[in-house]
Amino acid sequence: MESTLTHMLEKEDYLLDHERELNYDLPWNPMKIEQRIGRIHRIGQKKEVQIFNFCAVDSLEDYILDILDRKINMFEMVIGEIGMILGRISGEKEFSDIIYDIWVNSETKQEREKSFATLGTKMKRAKTGYQKTRELDDKLFGDAYEL
């Protein structure tokens, strides 16, 4: 459950006076994380933005951060790219539902780690596919092309 403070900050239009974000109640949906970051890292922001993600070791959020940060470097990507990658792996299922299914259906820690590793591999492949598509679009359309 998201905190009241986080919910209030999500409703703010611009947070250009802030340069740090502390995420301690991470949502399961990476798009929400990306939206939070986008609220303080906007055009016009004059300070370097720092994002801190807190979670308990071996928690569900720890597995999610591992995939998003270490596997696909989400926090170095351009805003909007994560949606393109998730669309390539989730099909009919929401990302949060995939995460939930892995968490509740894994009977052991090893099984859970293997399932999350498999998801991480799929996301790496999806990111590579997205990057190839983007490169082709750039070659075909140049700077005039927008997603």
In short:
With 147 residues, the protein is mostly helical.
Topology summary:
Layout: H1 4-11, E1 20-23, H2 30-40, E2 50-53, H3 60-71, H4 81-90, H5 95-105, H6 109-141
The rounded distance between the terminal residues' Cα atoms is: 32 Å
The amount of helix comes to: 55-70%
How many beta-strand segments? 2
- Walk across the major sheet and give the strand order: 1-2
Q: Mind describing the biggest β-sheet? A: 2 strands, parallel
Domain module count: 1
Would you tell me the structural class of the helices and strands?
mainly alpha
Helix segment tally: 6
Beta-strand residue fraction: 5-15%
The low-confidence parts are none
- The overall pLDDT average reads 77
Radius of gyration: 17 Å
Q: Could you say which overall geometry the principal axes of the C-alpha atoms support?
A: flat
Order of helices and strands: HEHEHHHH
Describe the overall structure.
With 147 residues, this protein is mostly helical. It has one domain (4-144). Helix content is 58%, strand content 5%. The chain contains six helices and two strands. The protein has helices at 4-11, 30-40, 60-71, 81-90, 95-105, 109-141, and strands spanning 20-23, 50-53. The chain has a two-stranded parallel ribbon with strand order 1-2. Helix 2 links the parallel strand 1 (20-23) and strand 2. Helix 3 (60-71) packs parallel to helix 6 and helix 4 (81-90) packs across helix 6 (109-141). The longest helix is centred in the C-terminal third of the chain and has 33 residues, at 109-141. It starts with a helix and ends in a 6-residue tail after the last helix.
